[in-house]
UniProtKB/TrEMBL annotation:
Role: Component of a complex that catalyzes the oxidation of glycolate to glyoxylate.
Protein name, as recorded: Glycolate oxidase iron-sulfur subunit
Gene3D superfamilies, per the entry: Alpha-helical ferredoxin (1.10.1060.10)
Pfam family, one: CCG
Species of the source: Rhodoplanes elegans
GO MF, one annotated term: metal ion binding
Co-factor requirement: [4Fe-4S] cluster
């Protein structure tokens, strides 16, 4: 794609990067076939190629974003399926993130939109505030159908996603869990924000599996939200502050007792953390350290995949439909590892038709774009239920929450199945499943 940025514009590192990305695009349109919003809407402006044209025009003209740009960029899920499909290697993720920042800085949204976004950006990254907000939403949950009929679809979506019970207090960081038996290594674990409150059993399962197989597990003091929620809303100040906090926390461990890996159990967080080097590339105080931290980040499935000698425990023979989170399969290019780990432990794995398409969660998308999110969720649920599995596994808390509210099939994180199959407790979501054939697996 030909671009016409001025030399003065190209002096800005963000514009220079956008120019490089735009020039890689050859207009082929392969991305339209795998873009969830284009598949649903058939609108060129709701495809990656269409959004690229909008972004190019907006940035080249150096003008404020308008309602048209905001509408179509907002509809993008950042699922990154287009990056998997693109034969030219267009780094759409960095381009759309830059566009979101430009929109946040130059476009004044309607007051109710600004208020909702501020609420999400302040409460979600803070575990204590998120717990309080969730408690309020739980109380208001019965009002969701009434609000939906009255046209308040975003508020209704937020209430529908609220948990049915009061969430536990967030677990503190600054802890070390020693390895059991012969020591294999030492890893850091991101406890994050939403997951540590909404589903603390996921990180607990990861700690048990890792310590059971010889790893010291460290939750460094000062670690927390990865920054992805605010990053994808264009709020770069808060996103980069979160990134710097995590870089500082994990770098202290790298420079101290050392870390073999920095583990994330939420694939959305892992995708953002692996990008810290890029996000902080222009910060002279953090650029090198951020790159060093990012290079150590691994999804928990990548670490478990390397454990060829995992311990086995007798659990029922179950059929698992593996729903690959977009941030894992497209963002991190981690595709086979979760399935191979579960298959090695004796679970029967099923791939999901249209597995490349997003479930519609996408961070805050299921609140900010509830209609499109619901359509994608229903499409995904139909594909999953068509497989008639015993359980659905997804490696991201957003996907788990999105899917679990729309099907009677249990939805769990793969690491909780691994924990169970190597001697840990049965995942709570599987309490109703009988023991069946509980012979040790070989």
């Amino acid at each position: 794609m030909r671009t016409e940025f001025s030399l003065a514009q190209l002096a800005d590192p963000a514009i220079a990067e956008a120019d490089k990305i735009l020039r890689a695009c050859v207009h082929c349109g392969f991305c339209t076939a795998t873009c969830p919003t284009y598949v649903l809407l058939g609108d060129e402006l709701d495809s990656p190629r269409g959004r690229i044209y909008l972004i190019k025009d907006m940035l080249e003209a150096d003008r404020p974003a308008g309602p048209e740009e905001a509408k179509h960029i907002d509809r993008c899920l950042s699922c990154l399926s287009c990056m998997t499909t693109c034969p030219s290697g267009v780094h759409y993720m960095h381009l759309v993130d830059h566009a979101r920042t430009h929109i946040a800085e130059t476009y004044r949204r309607p007051w109710h939109d600004r208020l909702l976004r501020m609420l999400l950006a302040r409460s979600i990254p803070n575990p204590r505030l998120f717990r309080l907000a969730s408690a309020a939403a739980t109380l208001g949950k019965p009002l969701a159908p009434l609000l939906a009929r009255a046209g308040f679809s975003r508020l209704a979506a937020m209430l529908r996603l609220a948990p049915a019970r009061l969430l536990p207090a967030p677990t503190p960081s600054g802890r070390v869990f020693p390895a059991e038996g012969p020591r294999r290594g030492r890893v850091g674990l991101l406890s994050g924000c939403v997951q540590r409150v909404l589903s603390p059993d996921i990180n607990a399962a990861a700690v048990r599996v890792l310590t059971r197989h010889g790893y010291d597990v460290v939750l460094p003091a000062g670690e927390g939200c990865c920054g992805s929620v605010t990053h994808h809303m264009g709020d770069e100040d808060h996103a980069l502050a979160a990134a710097r906090a995590n870089v500082t926390a994990f770098a202290a461990e790298l420079d101290g007792a050392g870390l073999d890996a920095i583990v994330s159990t939420a694939s959305g967080c892992g995708t953002t953390m692996k990008d810290y080097g890029f996000m902080l590339r222009t910060d002279p105080a953090f650029a090198d350290t951020a790159a060093r931290v990012a290079a150590k980040v691994r999804d928990v499935s990548e670490v478990l995949h390397g454990l060829v000698d995992m311990k086995r425990a007798p659990v029922p023979a179950l059929t698992v439909a593996y729903q690959a989170p977009c941030s894992l399969q497209h963002g991190q290019k981690v595709v086979r590892q979760p399935k191979e780990v579960l298959a090695r432990l004796g679970f029967t794995m099923r791939d999901v038709p249209e597995g490349h398409l997003c479930c519609g969660s996408a961070g805050t998308y299921n609140i900010l774009q509830p209609d499109l999110s619901d359509r994608l969720r229903d499409r995904k649920i139909a594909a999953l239920e068509g497989l008639a599995p015993d359980v659905i596994a997804a490696g991201n808390i957003g996907c788990i929450t999105q899917l679990a509210g729309a099907t009677a099939i249990p939805v769990v994180h793969p690491v909780t199945l691994v924990d169970w199959a190597t001697g840990g407790p049965r995942p709570a979501a599987l309490a109703a499943i009988g023991d069946g054939d509980a012979s040790p697996r070989t």
